[in-house]
Write a structure and sequence with these properties.
By secondary structure, the protein is an alpha+beta fold. It has 2 domains: about 170 residues, Alpha Horseshoe (Serine Threonine Protein Phosphatase 5, Tetratricopeptide repeat), CATH 1.25.40.10; about 130 residues, 2-Layer Sandwich (Beta-Lactamase). Helix content is about 55%, strand content about 10%. A 5-stranded antiparallel sheet has the order 2-1-5-4-3. α3 runs antiparallel to α4 and α7 packs antiparallel against α8.
């Protein structure tokens, strides 16, 4: 273990809520300890889901693991939280390049190349434009390894200004949600969702709908059916965790052909379910689940 990783690990152990988890996860990534880096980043994001740089670190880890789809999801989430995040645009440009979409890579990198952009953005943009010129038959060949090297040096997190990584503005948006209308439980989660293809549902232990809706692909509310099918899920999850000696379960995320579905236990033995279209970044689904859980806790405290 390097001195840097040991020092950062000690810092995080002393204060598990510290933002040092981002620097530790990035250091582990650069040291090739990708499984440990992934664990540190995911656990940190459970505490701080609105930090753009934390999603950027997780995206880098996924990219190094060869999981470009999840990397793209996390970089897209980074840009939702910080539209000016240059490293995320560089990362998405890298994903586009690896997928062979040079035009999209060029657009992303051009958008990120202004102002105080890192030199690696300009280098990557130059190489992609060279590759595009070769494709059109009017340029000099650019070797693929050269383009790969241009993308490779994603800025190490230690070089980022400390003030930028410690300004999570999104939590304020959660606290500013209007107070729940106790007479309209069906619309409880509407203020916490971002798009029409997102839905949230609060279910009790008997499989009955407490609040929210579950709208299927046809636009029909099938909340009652879904709730009945989910009866006992929390109990089954708890039994599985005890059997595996993994502690209490905190969330479950399922990526299916038609949707991304996330679940988490809610107060009173209830279950909260959030669903979104398959194209929704996984990081955003986690954020929506966190918002909806805050909303559910507030509502349950008011109606009890």
């Amino acid at each position: 273990m390097s001195d840097e990783i040991r020092r950062l690990s000690d810092d995080l152990a002393r204060d598990p809520s510290s933002l040092v988890f981002m620097r530790l996860a990035d250091a582990l990534r650069r040291a090739g300890q990708l499984d440990v880096a992934l664990h540190v980043a995911v656990r940190g994001l459970e505490r701080h889901p609105y930090l753009a740089d934390a999603h950027d670190v997780l995206a880098r880890i996924y990219a190094d693991r060869g999981d470009l789809e999840r990397a793209a999801d996390e970089w897209a989430m980074t840009l939702r939280l910080d539209p000016a995040h240059g490293p995320a645009r560089l990362g998405l440009g890298f994903v586009d390049y690896r997928r062979g979409d040079l035009e999209s890579a060029e657009r992303r990198l051009a958008a990120a190349s202004g102002g105080d952009a890192d030199a690696s953005v300009a280098a990557a943009l130059a190489h992609v434009r060279g590759a595009l010129s070769m494709r059109l038959g009017n340029g000099t060949a650019v070797a693929a390894p050269a383009v790969e090297r241009a993308f490779a040096p994603l800025p190490a997190l230690e070089s980022e200004p400390a003030t930028r990584v410690s300004q999570p503005a999104a939590p304020a948006a959660v606290t500013e949600l209007p107070a729940p209308d106790l007479t309209q439980p069906r619309h409880l989660f509407a203020p916490a969702l971002d798009a029409a293809d997102q839905t949230a549902l609060l279910v009790d232990g008997d499989g009955l709908v407490l609040a929210g809706t579950y709208v299927d692909a046809t636009g029909q509310d099938v909340a009652e059916v879904v709730a009945a099918e989910l009866a006992g899920v929390s109990g089954e999850a708890e039994r599985a965790m005890r059997h595996l000696a993994l502690g209490a379960w905190t969330s479950l995320l399922v990526e299916a052909n038609e949707a991304v579905v996330a679940m988490t236990p809610a107060p009173g033995g209830n279950l909260l379910v959030v669903a979104a279209s398959r194209e929704t970044p996984v990081g955003l689904v986690r954020l929506l689940l966190d918002r909806a859980l805050t909303r559910a806790r507030d509502w349950l405290a008011r109606v009890s």
